[in-house]
TrEMBL record:
<keyword id="KW-0285">Flavoprotein</keyword>
<feature type="binding site">
    <location>
        <position position="151"/>
    </location>
    <ligand>
        <name>FMN</name>
    </ligand>
</feature>
<dbReference type="InterPro" id="IPR011251">
    <property type="entry name" value="Luciferase-like_dom"/>
</dbReference>
<dbReference type="Pfam" id="PF00296">
    <property type="entry name" value="Bac_luciferase"/>
</dbReference>
<comment type="similarity">
    <text>Belongs to the NtaA/SnaA/DszA monooxygenase family.</text>
</comment>
<keyword id="KW-0503">Monooxygenase</keyword>
<feature type="binding site">
    <location>
        <position position="97"/>
    </location>
    <ligand>
        <name>FMN</name>
    </ligand>
</feature>
<protein>
    <submittedName>
        <fullName>Nitrilotriacetate monooxygenase component A</fullName>
    </submittedName>
</protein>
<dbReference type="GO" id="GO:0016705">
    <property type="term" value="F:oxidoreductase activity, acting on paired donors, with incorporation or reduction of molecular oxygen"/>
</dbReference>
<dbReference type="GO" id="GO:0004497">
    <property type="term" value="F:monooxygenase activity"/>
</dbReference>
<dbReference type="InterPro" id="IPR016215">
    <property type="entry name" value="NTA_MOA"/>
</dbReference>
<feature type="binding site">
    <location>
        <position position="222"/>
    </location>
    <ligand>
        <name>FMN</name>
    </ligand>
</feature>
<keyword id="KW-0288">FMN</keyword>
<feature type="binding site">
    <location>
        <position position="147"/>
    </location>
    <ligand>
        <name>FMN</name>
    </ligand>
</feature>
<dbReference type="InterPro" id="IPR036661">
    <property type="entry name" value="Luciferase-like_sf"/>
</dbReference>
<feature type="domain" description="Luciferase-like">
    <location>
        <begin position="29"/>
        <end position="392"/>
    </location>
</feature>
<dbReference type="InterPro" id="IPR051260">
    <property type="entry name" value="Diverse_substr_monoxygenases"/>
</dbReference>
Length: 446
């Protein structure tokens, strides 16, 4: 008997706050117009993707005290966009990135349950933690939260949100959502939680939603983040897109699930991935190189180095050699609102100098080499084979595809690669589940 091939899970990432979006391409369109969101979402649904993934920035990034205008600097509210997309899609999941630091459990649980009802069971929540005081200045609590406390608060937050979602039992209503009547007084129960972060009590105003709980996504990679995901998440948005790194991460996180009473099938691992396809492998490589140099202008290259050097490097030529001055590790304020700071700038600079000397790289060449490489490059058949290999050999369960163009960046993938994945029998030809949770093959909420 032939074992069925493992299905590939796919998500479409609407390009967020980053410098991967190519603004200069003639095909680039608005990052704010609703039509851009609609185009990408409908393209993903046409391709049988599981969900649409929307990033969020809670403050405009700054560099040397000025708005960092080389990045995307504006984005409508996440929940408003997803609610709008619920009306123009039928099956595609709708995932929003929403902070567990600068929201409150009751309010966010109610909003997500409402989105789940409006979309007939397609809501998902990417839980993120935000610990920096710069972002906190937009909120009354400021930057009070210590970095070490962020996952503890997030775990308490998710516990509380699930408490609100569970305050209506599955049999609380008769007559369905259109004409609800309470079956018994026990159908809606009072929820209470008291811990070092929250002291809340009450019941949800929103009946139990189609999924019970919206799908929970998480993106942490530290030991603490991996444990948080193993205990709480349905999907991990991973940064480990390489084959060997992916296998190590996959085995590590899946191995943690048993300690929380869960099985490997209860959690999906989906790394971020980019792609370039063309008629031949050589054409794809040339196109990928062209895209990388579009993504990294000379100005972007200099600012990227300044974030590591902690110095003003504007006097240096981006097409010349690396700066000969040493970094200033204490100047962490040069770039504000950016995640993933380099932990050891001195070591990073040494490694970059060695790489630049060995390969004869300019500043811009170095930034292209180290920050903007596409994950999958090749012919449509070659890319399909690479994606399939990663999933079948347990490097991941699927991918969150991040296109370099808004809103048409997924068009080539859906037109050229998706048919080949379907021929391989690893991607759905139609949606069979009634909810996002069912389409992802995830169990009902515990």
């Amino acid at each position: 008997m032939t074992t069925p091939r493992k299905q590939i899970r796919l998500a479409a990432h609407f390009p967020g706050v980053n410098n991967t979006t190519v603004w200069s391409d003639p095909a680039s369109r608005s990052q704010i117009d609703f039509s851009s969101f609609v185009h990408l979402a409908r393209t993903a649904e046409r391709g049988g993707f599981d969900f649409f993934f929307l990033a969020e920035g809670l403050r405009l990034r700054e560099h040397q005290g000025r708005i960092h205008d080389l990045d995307v600097v504006g984005r409508p509210d996440t929940l408003a966009v997803l609610a709008g997309l619920a009306a123009v899609t039928r099956h595609l999941g709708l995932a929003g990135t929403l902070s567990a630091t600068y929201n409150e459990p009751y309010e966010l649980a109610r909003q997500l349950a409402s989105l789940d009802h409006l979309s007939d069971g397609r809501a998902a929540w990417n839980v993120v933690t935000t610990s920096d005081a710069f972002t906190g200045e937009n909120f009354r609590r400021g930057g009070y939260l210590d970095h070490a406390d962020r996952y503890e608060r997030a775990a308490a937050f998710v516990r509380a949100a699930r408490g609100w979602w569970d305050s209506w039992s599955a049999d609380a209503l008769a007559g369905g959502r259109d004409r609800p009547t309470f079956v018994n007084e026990g159908g809606v129960r009072r929820f209470a939680q008291t811990d070092r972060f929250f002291a809340v009590e009450g019941e949800s105003t929103v009946p139990r939603s189609p999924q019970g709980h919206p799908v929970v996504i998480q993106a942490g990679d530290s030991v603490q983040g991996r444990d948080f995901a193993a205990a709480n998440a349905d999907v991990i948005f991973s940064r480990h897109g390489g084959l060997e790194q992916g296998r190590d991460f996959y085995a590590d996180v899946k191995g943690r699930l048993g300690g929380y009473g869960r099985s490997p099938e209860d959690l999906l691992i989906m790394p971020a991935a980019t792609f370039v396809v063309a008629g031949t492998a050589a054409e794809a490589e040339e196109r990928a190189r062209h895209i990388r140099y579009q993504q990294v202008s000379g100005q972007t290259a200099i600012r990227s180095l300044e974030q590591v050097w902690g110095r003003d490097l504007s006097a240096y030529d981006p097409d010349g050699p690396l700066p000969d001055v040493e970094p200033d590790p204490g100047n962490t304020a040069i770039s504000q609102g950016r995640a993933g700071r380099v932990k050891d700038p001195l070591a990073q600079v040494r490694a970059w100098r060695e790489l630049a000397e060995a390969k004869k790289l300019s500043i811009r060449d170095l930034v292209v080499e180290t920050t903007a490489r596409q994950t999958f490059v090749g012919t449509p058949d070659g890319v399909a084979a690479q994606l399939d290999e990663h999933v079948q050999t347990k490097a991941c369960d699927g991918f969150v595809l991040v296109p370099h163009l808004t809103p048409g960046g997924l068009d080539d993938f859906v037109d050229l690669v998706v048919p080949l994945l379907r021929e391989r029998g690893v991607l759905r030809t139609e949606y069979t589940g009634a909810t996002l949770r069912e389409n992802l093959g995830l169990p009902a909420p515990r």
